[in-house]
Task: inverse folding
């Protein structure tokens, strides 16, 4: 059985034996590897190495740090195919989608290569008599990242690319469900020239997460995962005096106005609702047609497209999407479909019966479509995170705008229309963090910034972009005056002002 190692600069000798967790191949349902579910002792060893390495890394000039990231990017590009295969085999997303996962992460690495410019401070000469003021962005020290299963390459790179570029040491605790790619990324970072101890990987579940949150040497924690855990991470981490950003779950709506380009809507919706088996925090699991005529047309067009979707092995190039990540998650999705039926929604397409021949034990689930879903239903209020699209019919623009605005989650939203005024009005008023206008999955590019609102994100500062640099640095401001031999010898007992 393959054993997935920690990446520890000081090695793992002498550490107590950890409990093991199973890593599945979702295509077959078989266990393909085991990962340690470690705790405080392993973390302590990582922190010791990080503490030793970080000051030297912070003192390395930013261009040299950027060069390590350039080299890392070249190495990941060289390894794209094996990395994508590994990712797809543990997660279950198609190979093409796995490449996209890695590529979106690399785009943040590209952004972080601009760190000499991004980390520049500010300077005010002559702020007072003979006084200059300058500020600098200094690394927080040791940062940690706790990541979900659904983007095992992109989300770790969102975090460690920027954290490392800023001069921090970083400890990554990836999802225990698909931890192999994060390990490979850390190995490639070492190969690219990062000093040992600057990027380490520790494995585990809640015990390891809580050890990270409680460790006094870790200054900042970035978390991405489900909302209840995000809230826990935020509360416990900030109580321990850390800076914490904690991204949570989502329930993104796609609003369709009557004047929308229906061909585009149907294409986009099918991809955004069912791509990656719906296991994306920026998926579109809710569609809101405005007006009965729009709803009827959309339903008529959507049903055959959904029924024609091909669910297959993640390495089958003709598959639209592959299996979900675990049997337990498949059961959970099935449970939500049953709940939707029980709550009175109309199950128009039922994906529960799908069995892939030769892969009867794989975690496959067919696509489902619900119509006549209403906001009071639990299956609407909660995140399903599977290949299930729910249609909520709205009478008019205001009713449609209110749905995502009042929902507990506020990650992303999309509006389909040809009306610029309606689009502008919507973008201004909707109570959601990331908005797409005729764009289904509005994940901002690396040099902008990613983050939802409400229960989709706890804490300040988004991921990557300038916000990422702010999160992984602290500002130090220096007010300086150099003696000019003309001191008047008076003590000042009054606070200096610019009066
Ligand atoms: P998850 O919350 O189960 O796990 C995320 C991380 O938290 C993992 O590293 C896991 O080991 C750890 N964890 C799990 N249970 C814990 C506990 N009780 N105490 C402490 N730590 C714990 O999430 P997941 O299933 O891996 O990922 C899917 C979720 O992530 C979805 O809700 C999805 O919407 C969300 N997500 C959000 C974003 C975003 O940017 N908002 C992006 C991707 C995924």
Result:
């Amino acid at each position: 059985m393959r054993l997935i190692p920690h990446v520890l600069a000081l090695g793992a000798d002498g550490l107590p034996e950890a409990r093991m967790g199973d890593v599945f191949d979702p295509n077959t349902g078989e266990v393909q590897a085991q990962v340690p579910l470690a705790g405080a002792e392993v973390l302590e060893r990582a922190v010791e190495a990080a503490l030793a390495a970080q000051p030297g890394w912070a003192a390395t000039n930013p261009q040299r740090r950027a060069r390590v990231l350039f080299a890392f990017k070249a190495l990941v590009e060289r390894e794209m195919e094996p990395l994508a295969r590994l990712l797809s085999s543990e997660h279950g997303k198609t190979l093409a989608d796995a490449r996209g996962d890695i590529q979106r992460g690399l785009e943040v690495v590209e952004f972080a290569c601009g760190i000499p410019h991004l980390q520049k401070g500010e300077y005010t000469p002559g702020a007072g008599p003979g006084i200059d003021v300058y500020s600098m962005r200094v690394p927080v020290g040791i940062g940690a990242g706790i990541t979900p299963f659904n983007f095992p390459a992109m989300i770790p790179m969102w975090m460690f690319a920027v954290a490392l570029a800023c001069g921090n040491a970083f400890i990554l605790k990836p999802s225990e469900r698909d931890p192999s790619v994060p390990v490979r990324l850390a190995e490639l970072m070492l190969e690219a020239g990062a000093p040992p101890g600057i990027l380490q990987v520790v494995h585990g579940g809640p015990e390891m997460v809580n050890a990270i949150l409680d460790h006094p040497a870790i200054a900042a924690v970035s978390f991405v995962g489900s909302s209840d855990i995000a809230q826990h991470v935020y509360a416990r981490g900030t109580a321990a005096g850390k800076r914490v950003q904690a991204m949570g779950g989502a329930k993104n709506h796609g609003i369709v106005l009557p004047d929308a380009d229906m061909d585009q809507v149907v294409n986009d919706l099918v991809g955004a609702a069912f791509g990656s088996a719906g296991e994306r925090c920026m998926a579109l699991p809710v569609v809101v047609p405005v007006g009965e005529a729009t709803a009827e047309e959309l339903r008529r067009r959507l049903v055959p497209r959904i029924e024609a979707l091909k669910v297959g092995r993640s390495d089958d190039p003709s598959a639209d999407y592959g299996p979900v990540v675990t049997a337990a998650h498949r059961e959970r999705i099935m449970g939500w479909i049953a709940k939707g039926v029980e709550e009175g929604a109309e199950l128009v397409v039922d994906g529960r019966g799908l069995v892939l021949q030769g892969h009867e034990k794989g975690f496959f689930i067919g696509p489902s479509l619900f119509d006549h879903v209403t906001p009071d239903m639990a299956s609407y209020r909660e995140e399903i995170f599977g290949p299930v699209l729910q249609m909520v019919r709205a009478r008019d623009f205001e009713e449609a705008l209110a749905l995502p605005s009042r929902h507990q989650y506020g990650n992303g939203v999309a509006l389909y229309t040809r009306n610029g005024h309606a689009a502008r009005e919507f973008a201004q008023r909707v109570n959601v963090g990331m908005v797409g206008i005729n764009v289904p999955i509005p994940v901002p590019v690396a040099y902008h910034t990613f983050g939802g609102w409400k229960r989709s994100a706890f804490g300040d500062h988004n991921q990557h972009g300038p916000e990422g640099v702010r999160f992984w640095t602290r500002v130090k401001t220096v007010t300086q005056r150099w003696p000019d031999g003309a001191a008047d010898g008076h003590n000042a007992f009054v606070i200096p002002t610019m009066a």
Summary: The CA atoms of residues 87 and 311 lie 18 Å apart. The chain has 16 helices and 21 strands.
